[in-house]
Amino acid sequence: MKKVIIACSLLWIWLWGGTFAALGQTIDTSDAYVTTVRLPQGKKRIVFRGERVILRVIPREGNSLQVVARLVYKGKKEVPEPYRVSWGLKAEPRPYGAAVETVFGGLPRGKARQRLRIQVELHVPPDADLQINTHIGSIEIQETSGNLILETELTNVAIGYARGEENLIKGDFNRFDIKFIRSARTDTDFSTFRIDLSFDLELKGDYNTFNLRRAKRVKLAGDFTSIRAGRIYTFQASGDNLNLSMDRIYYLDTKGDFQTLSVGELPPNFHYLRSRGDYGNVRIDNPLQTPYKFFIRLEHGTLQADGVEFIKREESFAEKYYEGYYRDPHAHAEIHVDRDFGTVILNN
After folding, report:
1. Is residue 37 part of a domain?
2. Interval 113-135: pLDDT, tens
3. Which stretch of DSSP H or E encloses residue 38?
4. Which helix (H) or strand (E) holds 198?
5. Which domain holds residue 318?
6. Which pLDDT belongs to residue 278?
7. Of 150, 106, 146, nearest to 129 (Cα)?
8. What is the C-alpha separation between 245 and 210, in angstroms, rounded?
9. Is 315 contained in some domain?
10. Count H helices, E strands: the chain?
11. Rounded distance, CA 323 to CA 295, Å?
């Protein structure tokens, strides 16, 4: 423990009040700072905080954390002499695991300020929990089986495989590219997500865009959000100004105004679809000719349905109601649509 603290002190000199004793000194960027922190046995958590960082998290064997850091300019190791600045790195053991922090001592103005970054590599045990807080930069997490907490702004995030059961993503103006995340809760605004596979997603926030290839369960709460999805087993959404487009759905329930819903395919084991709200179009394509029953209420909207049989058809100036089925009057699958304004298309 004493050796670790001494090693850390050589890399970082921190004075209360937020100043550096090493301010004014230039950093020789040809050599990276490297330090190792011994971690406690059992469950552990790594906490990282930084600004303007290029962060990579790499799994390693053993029970220690290795930190490698250097100053880079436009992604290159060589930093022009006028733009070399003081910066700090702190890596310390904690009862829960370890804490790592980077800070700039001073930044130039103009374009050079945007091109300076601290490049950090965290070599961590794969089962360690990660808590990362960054502002401006990028994050790459290759693989982790621990839980993940991300609080970021203006950051590009790439995640390979996040197998932890409790993952939290927060922040604004971010871009996420995720291959696999077992489960996640998000609370973001003005962010873009691309997720290839997930078992459980709870999405919260406004002005977001999601591209989901495959998910078992998705729950959305937010406004002004767009979702383009492949195969979704269970989908629930609440919010206004939503643009929802899905290739294949098994169960869907949405509520809100100014919602646009498009479904490309109803699989043979399709179960239930309900969409409620004002002002929005609904289009359901059924190339597999899956049987279903439908219950549709409109006020000033219109219904376009191909190949269906009507059991009840009531039309007046104030309200329209349609009840019927496609192919099988005893079908277990049901479609419910409640709209005041908009067009409902059942394309079989």
Report:
1. no
2. 677 888 999 999 999 999 999 99
3. strand 33-38
4. strand 192-204
5. 265-348
6. 92
7. 146
8. 10
9. yes
10. 2, 25
11. 5
* 32 alpha carbon, distance to own chain's centre: 31
1: exposed, middle or buried (C-beta count within 10 Å: 0-12, 13-18, 19+)? exposed
Residue type at position 83 = Y
C-alpha distances out from residue 76 to 29, 50, 117, Å:
10, 19, 10
Round to whole Å and give the CA distance between 163 and 179.
Answer: 11
Tokens matching residue 52: 């303007």
What is the pLDDT averaged over residues 286-300?
Answer: 95
| Rounded distance between C-alpha atoms, residue 39 and residue 62, angstroms | 9
CA gap 326, 141 in Å, rounded: 48
Residue 306 lies in a domain: yes
CA dist., res. 99 & res. 133, Å (int):
11
Q: Assess contact for 314 and 251: CB atoms under 8 A.
A: no
Q: What mean pLDDT is reported for the chain?
A: 88
Provide DSSP, 74-143.
TTBS---GGG---EEEEEEEETTEEEEEEEES---STHHHHHEEEEEEEEE-TTSEEEEEEEEEEEEEEE
What would the two tokens of residue 73 be?
A: 């300019």
Which three-class secondary structure string do you get for 282-315?
Answer: EEEECCCCCCEEEEEEECCCEEEECCCEEEEEEE
Indicate whether 320 belongs to any domain. yes
AA letter at 335 = I
Domain count, the chain: 1
What token pair was written down for 201?
């997603």
Alpha carbons 289 and 133: distance in angstroms, whole number: 49
Q: Write out pLDDT tens, residues 19-50.
A: 222 322 333 334 688 899 999 999 999 999 99
Burial class (CB in 10 A: 0-12, 13-18, 19+), 255: middle
**Residue of 2 and 267 predicted with greater confidence:** 267
